[in-house]
Amino acid sequence: MSPVPYRGPGKPVHADLSIARSQLGRSTVFLPDRAATLRYGSALARLLRAGDLLILGGPLGAGKTTLVQGIGAGLGITDPITSPTFVIARVHRDGRVPLVHADAYRLGGVDELDDLDLDMDLDDAVTAVEWGEGIAEHLAEEYLLVSIDRESTEAGDGRTVTLRPHDEGWVRRLSGFEAGVR
Prior knowledge:
α1 crosses α2. The protein is built from 6 helices and 9 strands. The protein starts with a strand and ends with a helix. It is α/β, with parallel strands linked by helices. The chain has a single domain (34-181), classed as Rossmann fold (3-Layer(aba) Sandwich), CATH 3.40.50. Strands 1, 2, 3, 4, 5, 6, 7, 8 and 9 form a 9-stranded mixed sheet that branches. β5 and β6 form a beta hairpin. The protein is globular and about 45 Å long. Helices cover 26% and strands 26% of the residues.
């Protein structure tokens, strides 16, 4: 099943992937299942380049790691991508761009995140930080906040993904995302 635009709890707009945009570049899409989340991540990966920072937020089990798995697939990464919760950070180097996948859930704050030296890899990799909101924004001037929420609908468990660009560069890149996902 394909992701569909989202306009409130359980209210898909139509079956194509047109994404509603506000004047700030924010977009929200409803993804009906895990497979759609993987496809969405893979499509998002087409926009990504070395130096990009993604900060992922959402409740436990919302699909943050699943989205990163899709991003990894879209980057050509063949290594299994698993949650970095217990190891804090994993580096996957076998794609077109390396992927640093970190989890800030167990970190006590900005100082502990800085101790990971993620900024050492930032220029050369795509960095995705789960649970990073309020802690990882200082790693780069330009970043994309990705909020994921689970929703139960008549069709099953889905999720809403909201992309919030934090600079004009991301706003421009996301403006072409709608056409690139179709």
